[in-house]
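Methods: example folding runs. The two proteins below were folded one after another, and each record is reproduced exactly as written to the output file, sequence line first and structure-token line second.
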Amino acid sequence: MRKALSLVLIAVFLVSFFGGVSVVPSAKAAVAQQVTYNLGTEPATIDPALSQGIPEANIILQTMDGLTRIDSKNMPQPAIAKSWTISKDRRTYTFTLRDAYWTNGTPVTAYDFEYAWKRALSPELAASYAYQLYYVYGGEAFNTSIKVGSKYYVQAVDAKGNPLTKTVGGKVVPVANMAKEINPSKNIGVKALDAKTLKVYLQSPTVYFLNLTAFPTLMPVCKAVVSTNDKWAADVTNYVTDGPFKLTQWSHNDKMTFVKNPTYWDKAAVKLTKITYLMVTDESTALSMFQSGQMDVGSTVPLSELPKLVASGDAKILPYLGTYYYMFNTTKKPFNDVRVRKALALAIDRKGITTAITKGGQTPALAYVPNGIADAAAGSDFRTVGGTFYKDKDIATAKSLLAQAGYPNGKGFPSFTLLFNTSNAHQSIAEAIQQMWKQNLGITCTLKVEEWGVYLDDRNNLNYQVARAGWIGDYMDPNTFLDMFVTGGGNNGTGYANKTYDALIAKAKATVSPTARMAALHAAEKILMTDMPIIPIYFYTNPVLITKHVKNFYQSTLGFVDWKNAYMS
């Protein structure tokens, strides 16, 4: 800017000196519509069907449009679907698609949606979030089926509902019920009637289904590209998308570059011409880059600097519908003992963590589902109605439970490992809790830090003992927090199973009455907090670094950043 201004002044001087001509300086140059954002980590994937974390979603949301898109009030608005009708029983949705195009110039069709949803459900893809499509008729049966040759069969179970297995070549494998074949083209309730019409049949009425159609798992993929290339999402040249921005560069563990998508159906609404995503994991480094003008918005803020940055206006604390928690591998001793799990949970000083470490207005979590979700009665909040389930820093009860489990004052308790992903904040919290467990219970743990993708892999495969986790709601309903812990759930990750809990979640999903739904979900949360496969620690807020030059920045309470309507001033 300075260089350009100097040249203008020199030109004015020369013209005035030699010709005596009065020159009016040109109007202020237009601001470059380019923004730099720190994502904070390398994404584990950018395939919408395989996405399971906020970092991945915050890439996919820029490059993809689903049937709907969530607005600034967390409400679904028409996107690729320009309109829809819903049957009286609220189980059949018919979507009419608008004229929209993939970045390769081909039309986005209802056939792409049908293919994408069935692909996400396919048992061979093993998508963690496939259960978001269990609301679709036949979705769960297909996802849990067994493929034999080119056909799919229902998983055989015994009289108690336990999966049947057999040993083949020394390996235990599930048994398929050969009498119950599942035909994906006939037995799943999503069907393209033609290129512009998608019909969806649900298992039961689902009040938040339109919100789900904006979720990454339900995004379309270009069938012509994806069906012929398993690695389509690993290379930007094959990453064919339909959203407001197009991914043009991906330097792993460094940065991503997006440009305005010229084929986007609503391109007139998009002001930014370029977005750069950085992957700086160290919060202090990110802050230095922000202060030197190398980034405009950052997803991570050094906790020690947060109060000062908020006061100066360089950081904002946004609402966030989420819970920070630790999870147990309940399949491994001693964490298969509920008394041990409860002892570790009660020995934590949550208020101490939120006041001395996080400092961002977070509140101690004495339950799992956070505040901010409506209950059945008008104006009520699910958390307020549900209350709390335990006391913070209840050392006496914790010591008593540990003694009952056979480890008085921690004697004989095996050393274990606490796993977390790369972050100074996670490190500080882990070190504090490590010290609390040592001081309050006499037990010892070591800390293990892993890069995001490896950490997710180890969690998903139960390759841990205790691990950090965080869950941000996918939609505004308690079910988004509770249904993940059903037996075998794609995001369960603890090995936890309770059939009464499963039944309550199934009841809530099949129930229309708001009062009955919420009653079932409250009962389910009570079981979860009694069995304690997880330790809720605090309810999130969302501190972000943001320069005043960024306008219309939007990050929802669900954690999703949407750059579609943002611009630079």
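Second run, written to the same file directly after the first:
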Amino acid sequence: MPSYPYRTIREDLRVPLPDGTGLYARLWRPVTDDPVPALLEYSAGRLTDWTASDDARRHPWYAGHGYASVRVDRRGHGNSGGTPDDATDLPDGAAVVAWLAGRPWCSGRIGLLGTGPDGATALRLAAHAPDAVHAVVAACPETGLRPGGAVPAADLHARATARLADAARPPDPQYLGDDWRPRWQERLASLEPPFPGWLADAPPDDPPATAAVPTLAVAGWGDPSCALLLRLLASGAVPVRAVLGPWPHGLPDEILPETLRWWDHWLRDIDAGALKTPVLRSWISTRWTGEESWPSPDVRDIHYGLDGPLRTAGTASDDRHVQVRSPQHTGLNAGAYVPAGRPADQPPDQREEDGRSVCFDSQPLPEPLELLGTPSLRLRLRPSPAPGLVVARLCDVAPDGTSVLLTRGALVTSPSEPDATVELAAAGTTVPPGHRLRLALSSTYWPWLWPDPDPAGYGLDPSHSTLTLPVRHLAADSGAAPVTFASPTLPLPPPVHTTEPLTARPERLTIHDIARHEWRTELSPAGDGTRTHPDGLVRDEHTVTAYRILSATPTSAQARTDRTVRLERPAIGWDITLQTRTELRCTPTHFLAHTRLTALEAGDVVFTRDWQQQIPREA
């Protein structure tokens, strides 16, 4: 254990809710007679196994620096009581905050910490909880399910599958005792696949775009949350700082000292320089940069007309419109919707995708072009009787033809409005001199997005269409102090023994059946395999997700995931297996979801259920 200012102790406890339900919690706190602030990480990810490694590194580190650091499983998850219920998440979280603030070892000041969906919950809870919440640290706060009104396929299907499979895991008898089985049976009986709510016309609420308390927000470029971070900065209601770096989804270790400075300032009234940093620190290609305000005066909008600085091959002389009609497998080289740091997460060379799109290219750039912010695309479309899907990609094309994806966006168009604005994902990057900018437009993007039922595409008038890029002044860093980060010395994680599968599947495999004109993509998470935890738990997971589509038939799109989880405690003969299968298809008017959940104890089936759901395609 590294040396910190405080010795620490750890205890497992239950946080009582007003209705009598107990939430399982793990508390690390400093050995001191003085009350200290509390940091709350409130999550659905089982603290005794799934998040145990990260918890055992970060929470003791916070405790060693003078904070009571608490990790709490949500209702119906892990070893907490009750059944999963989205409607109770915020009231339960507020009750946990109030309980913590009333402990004799707590000073009454609370900070909220969360990553991904838990980061979004922390932002919402800060607005919902009592005045005890003084600050938030949100890493990659998960945003809503409808980019530009489009319905994601890959992210929505994967999240829905994981949510059902993980909620079905039983409490652990080592921590709950003999009461685990009736609790598990109650949990299984309450489960419902989330497809109807997530595919309906009104998706779940986004995190608030205005911070309720001082907030430090962190994300990696490429994460869907980047645009939300910039909106939080621009709201200006309370102090906000943002860091956008070269990381995958998660909270990177090198940011932990920044979070400590944030907590010290807002929870302990210690001036550690938290507000003396630039409001936005961002990694741009090869270096860290800092912006003292956002929007930044060093970033200005540069407009590129699609019939001037950007040009395509042209259209027939009697038609000013360019027709965009893409094969349905356009998007196979999109990479992961939420990059987790694996090699296959990154989009490969985009030349194949460019060949399936209509492209507008610039001339070679005479000098570097530095982008920082959110590009947008204003399009004039041919009138259409029905909504359509517009997908835009911005690429950096090298002299040798290599096409590197910089950012992308999507929009479901309105048939009554010929002018459409596509907001692309936030980006921070440099395009070298001699390279070209390429705007690639398509009418589909599978398997990221469910395809438009009509394969006809759309017509575009380049003479009334403009790409707007946020261009940062090349001399903006002149005289600025360097931006640096340093990783802390964290405790070693618990020794979890991992056994990789003997026949590991590729992370991402694409198959083209030429005779059937069918394209299939198969994904297998890098986390598959067997893990033996220090407390004796053996956890084995195997997942395969497949997406298929026929090149000319949008309603042939199909997503399927098979997931098996086995939990064992050999010392007491406890052996649980969960098998889930989710299939999602579409017709011109509906999504069709088939879900199956089977639970086994010692090889015997104790629960099985099938759901057949039909959800209207409202958009």
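Comment on the second run: The chain has ten helices and 31 strands.
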